[in-house]
Fold:
Amino acid sequence: MRAWGTSDDLEDFITHFYEGTRSMTQDEVFNVVWGLKEIHDIRMQALMDCFKRTFRLDEYAPVEATELKEQFFNNKEGICDD
Structure:
């Protein structure tokens, strides 16, 4: 649910930008937008980590699943060399 915070952050910025008592320089606008982008990236990384933990993927996969995956992708038998 925290991922939706980016939308709220952007809405706050837009309101401040258009209704604020002072205008913002290009550098200030850039810094705010870049900061929001970085926060959004961090939130998305946390969301992906939660997804992987929930479904036991990648580094959270059980050893048996990892071994089967390696066997499957390393098995060259039955592949046509046309």
Remarks:
- DSSP finds three helices and no strands in the chain.
- The two ends are 49 Å apart (CA to CA).
